[in-house]
Amino acid sequence: MREMAKGSNVGLAALSDDTGSVVVSLRWSSAAGDGDADVSVLLLDGNGKVRSDADFFFYNNPAAADGSVQLLGKTPTDSGSEDRISLDLTAVSQDVDRIVVAASQYGGSCFGELDDLRVTLADGSGEALLGFSITDAGVESAFIFGELYRRGEEWKFRAIGQGYETGLAGLATDFGIDIDDGSEDDAVAAAAVEQAPKADEGRPPAVLPSAVIPAQAVGEAQPVVVEPTTRRARGPRTAKKKVTLPKVARKSLAENDSWKPARLFPAPSLKSDKERELRATSVLLSVMAEVPELGRRLTAAFGAPAGRMQTFTEVTLPHGDTPKRPDGVIRVERAGKLWTALVETKTNGNPLKQDQVQNYMDIAARRGYEAVITLSNDVALEGSPLVDVRTDGRRKHKVALWHLSWAEVAHQAQMLIRHEGVGNAAHAWLLQELLHYLQHENSGCHGFQNMGPAWVPVRNGIDTETLCQGDLRAVEVVESWERLIRQVCLRLGGELGQKALPVQRAKRGSDPHSRRAVLADRLCDEGRLTAELRIDGTPGVLGITADLRTARLRTSIEIQAPEGSYPLTSAKRLLRLLAEAPADLHVETLVEGGSGPRGTLERLRPEPADMLPKDGARMTGFRLSLFKGMGATRGSAESGFIRSVDESVDRFYASVVAQLTQLERRSGSRSQATEPAAAR
Length: 680
What we know:
This protein is of the alpha+beta class.
């Protein structure tokens, strides 16, 4: 990989033969675990300006209609997060001269608070071609990391590293984006929250983004034209975008509950793992081919171009004396060129087999295919591959090995039909049927469901105090816990339409193996597994603790006390915000250097003064917690540990976090509405 210096440039053709589609990755880390930024992409003409507001891509406008740009979302890294952007350079219009890749922060944050600011660019096979690290960030709240630009028929990359103290608005204005006052937009967003449909029982209520407004049933809906806006007080105005919303449940015409609706993809009749694999592969690949939004979203991350997609199952390919039959094949055609990926599927928690994947990698290399995609219930981790394969360095043609979990598929389907919208009602219905199939108990596509063979021995060792530091089984449990937390983030993000990521508080420069070894030793000593989730738009970081000694789960969040307010006023305000919270919610007052009084909400409601520190210590905030007993099995039974974690997070978010978020948002909207216009 070529390391770039600030201001330097390089032609992509000199680095790889496979640069028709590239993936640009922006990453950063934070020792405190609370730093974040949003990526954006601008397409510029020969004058250095956008052709229209539609050339600006960000969280509310994540993809170009021609597939040339697609924001792939955030991925957790060992010590922070990474945003990936798929750029199909063959699809970029000829009147686009430059592609600017930037990121911005908000809420008074600046890039100097983040570590390891870095941009990398990978070719279609996933091989990193170049990297550029920014080391001089300071008070800037927006940054241009780099740009791709044309020189004749060639694309080149320039490392820029230019910051803006005026944030995203200042950056966008420089490139010709119209800036619109956000007060009216905030009112639209608040109205969308007020009209949001009720959540399913046992699930968190959906907090809809500003670009989504509830509509009628899909069978009767007309395309709804909305204008996506930024979530900040002021922000760029993008082009209008049609959104067809998913079907709203209507009263059933069945005589009784025994009448089951007909499904496009039935699952109850599946008997064997082979049947589940065949059905799941065929269902997914067929929907990918028919719903361009889903097909493009799932394959763009793997370097596929934007083009006409066809999918196939049970294809026989020659391989020595015995032909091989991968579960599926994906082909994308663009400008007369084909991109091909072989698909190997596992369901019901079955592990991927190294020899199978190796055979498909060898076949793909010989036939000139671009990728092999593995699909299973497992979630891939950085530094911990699900299957090891050999690569023949003598072959000029490179084959990329990618992994996709069923949880990621469900996440993307949820994001499209519940939050971002698709092209028409038929596509929305297909995605709903796909999601229903994936969530059916008999499909085998439920995501990560088993804590692994080390789970029971480690729990027993903690119970008997015989588990010692350095035990490799503890490392396996830590890896399983990390997979579970990432799956929880995928599920929450899909249901809420918000970014949800695990927080990593790792030392700068530490590798995943050493970090997990430290966590495993801590598990042996303390008997606890801990994790933190950052959910966009919430007032704090959601903490999860699984105490294996007491068999209890704790979900919690810390809320800062308002600056300059009296302690009793802060306590009363918190109790008002928690008016609908469960009575068994534990409230702990935080003071400088430690913690103060604590009690259940039921006890504290009549006496808010009991929350005040008795020794005069300065109150800094509150910690809110709910406790739940955790299941003893690996996760396949009703009382399973994984199910317990899901239920704990769901209950805490729905009954505590969502209420705090919505009430604070409404309170903020009211205060802004009463604020003089000149002050705004």
